[in-house]
Design goal:
It holds the Pfam family DUF3800. It comes from Amycolatopsis nalaikhensis. Helix 4 crosses helix 5, helix 5 crosses helix 6 and helix 7 packs antiparallel against helix 8. The chain has 2 domains: about 180 residues, 2-Layer Sandwich (Nucleotidyltransferase, domain 5); about 100 residues, no CATH class. Strand 4, helix 11 and strand 5 form a beta-alpha-beta unit. By secondary structure, it is of the alpha/beta class. The longest helix has 21 residues. The relative contact order is 0.21. The two termini are about 30 Å apart. Strands 3-2-1-4-5 form a 5-stranded mixed beta sheet. About 50% of the residues lie in helices and about 10% in strands. The protein is globular, with a radius of gyration of 20 Å.
Length: about 300
């Protein structure tokens, strides 16, 4: 069976910097369009917007005066209907889930959701933020900014929070024996430059993108915007995990491939719409339009903020 080409791009990528960065949502988009259909779509967007800019980005579509163009692009009768897919990651929840999975011997996603919901009130918002930032610092061998915490200091904080009454304290108490797992992870990270960091949402999102488009058994070839985090070693790991589902990955400059430009549009507007929803300023109309594109396995705690789902 011949593979289908899926053009991809992302928005909100800051590597392992999940907290305190420029964005709180990461979006990875894939579109299945022919080069001719994508080029026609780009021409139509340019004609409808009428800007003299040489390269259009998602910000053009997100301007209030271009709202009709954005609604047209996402509409069930629009050019992307059935041809687009977005995997969303709430970066804070992603960090909480990573902590639960790594530090608790029996950590589950249900446990992560409970901690994500209860943590701020149980520990106080500032203390909770510091705890999560300290956790992400411990898992990075060379953190470039933010809190720098040693494993010893982090687990002292774990013991402190474990004494807080309630569900959040009980969950954190399960982290007290996670020191060996953290040490083992840091050792693997130091010895294997190809290891996918548990704090980087890009590779998991790519996995979901491929699984979505290959769900009917058709193998996928990714045409991805240039992305330094997708090293040759990580592409090999993706192929090892996905098997026959992933036929190939090649990188292009988005300006040279209209399909990737459309993926860039979709990722950028999806990230902004989802971030607004996450922060209580969501637009019901746009959230509803986005819903048909969103992967149901997105890393999102739907009860903490309404998730744009199908």
């Amino acid at each position: 069976m011949s593979p289908v080409e899926i053009a991809c791009d992302e928005s909100g990528s800051e590597g392992e910097n999940l907290l305190g960065g420029e964005t709180d949502v990461f979006a990875h988009a894939g579109v299945r369009l022919s080069p001719e259909a994508a080029a026609a779509c780009v021409r139509e967007i340019r004609a409808r917007i009428g800007s003299p800019a040489e390269e259009y980005k998602a910000n053009h579509l997100l301007r209030a005066k271009h709202r009709p163009v954005l609604e047209w692009l996402l509409d069930p009768g629009g050019p992307l209907a059935g041809h687009g897919h977005v995997h969303l990651t709430d970066k804070t929840f992603f960090a909480v889930r990573a902590a639960v999975r790594l530090l608790a011997e029996d950590g589950t996603d249900a446990m992560a959701r409970s901690l994500h919901r209860a943590g701020p009130a149980a520990f106080g918002a500032a203390r909770w933020d510091y705890f999560l930032t300290a956790f992400t610092s411990v898992l990075r061998l060379n953190p470039r900014r933010g809190v720098t915490t040693s494993p010893q200091a982090f687990f002292a904080l774990v013991r402190e929070l474990a004494d807080v009454p309630g569900e959040a304290g009980e969950i954190v108490a399960r982290f007290r024996d996670g020191g060996e797992r953290v040490a083992a992870y840091r050792a693997r990270l130091a010895s294997d430059p190809g290891l996918v960091p548990v704090l980087d949402p890009l590779v998991p999102a790519v996995l979901h993108t491929v699984r979505h488009w290959s769900a009917d058994g058709t193998p996928v070839s990714l045409v991805h915007d240039e992305q330094l985090a997708l090293t040759a070693e990580r592409v090999l790991q993706l192929k090892a995990v996905l098997g026959h589902r992933l036929a190939d990955v090649r990188f292009v400059d988005s300006r040279s491939d209209a399909r990737v430009q459309i993926a860039d549009f979709l990722a950028g507007v999806a990230r902004r719409i989802a971030s607004d929803e996450l922060n209580g300023r969501g637009d019901v109309r746009l959230t509803t339009l986005l819903a048909s594109f969103v992967d149901t396995e997105s890393v999102w705690d739907g009860s903490a903020a309404e998730h744009p789902r199908r």
